[in-house]
Amino acid sequence: MADVLIRRGVAGLSSVSRSDVPGNYPYEAIRVAKLIRAAGLTLEFEDEKPDRNYLTHDAAEFWLPIIEFARDLGKEAVITTLVGLVSSYATMKISRRGDSSGEEVTAPSPVLHVEVTRQGDPTTKLVLDGPADSVLEAITRIERWGSEDERRQLPEG
Question: More exposed terminus of the chain, fewer Cβ within 10 Å: N or C?
């Protein structure tokens, strides 16, 4: 069994069927798969290669594949993988066209749509939509959630 399963469908786009065969995947699934493998995790797609249909969208947003982490993968591995994945999209740069200096400028933070499930008891499902830096901040807060330091910072209820 793989550490990570990329499920058919597109995070943030309920209009893309999750039951059709061939399975619909966002084009970004290819890059995400490479990043997950580079993190040292094993990976499978819900559908075999001939049964995958990759969708592209002309937009300034990234619809990432729906990712499911294995039950026995520790929280640290899940968080580290998510942070690395989102960071890779958050730090994308564009070159200024028509500028003779060739200066590189940071593009506005891309909008990401992420849906992650972690198998276990109970199963945990996380859906995040927004600018990449905000998604990264949310993941970082989730990583600290439950720690003694983080609990001390919570407002009195």
Answer: C
At 133-149, the pLDDT tens digits run 888 888 888 766 655 55
Among residues 70, 9, 3, 60, the alpha carbon closest in space to that of 36 is found at 3
Three-state SS at 26 = strand
pLDDT digits (tens, 9 = 90+) for 39-61: 899 999 999 999 999 988 767 78
The reported pTM is 0.74
DSSP-assigned states of every residue in 62-101: EEEEEEEE-TTS-HHHHHHHHHHHHHHHHT-EEEPTT-TT
Convert 48-59 into a string of H (helix), E (strand) and C (coil).
CHHHEEEECCCC
Asked if 32 and 64 count as a contact pair (C-beta separation under 8 A), the reply is yes
- Is there a contact between 55 and 13 (Cβ–Cβ < 8 Å)? no
Q: How many CB atoms lie within 10 A of CB 152?
A: 7
Judged on CB neighbours under 10 Å (0-12, 13-18, 19+), 55 is: middle
CB-CB neighbours of 140 under 10 Å: 14
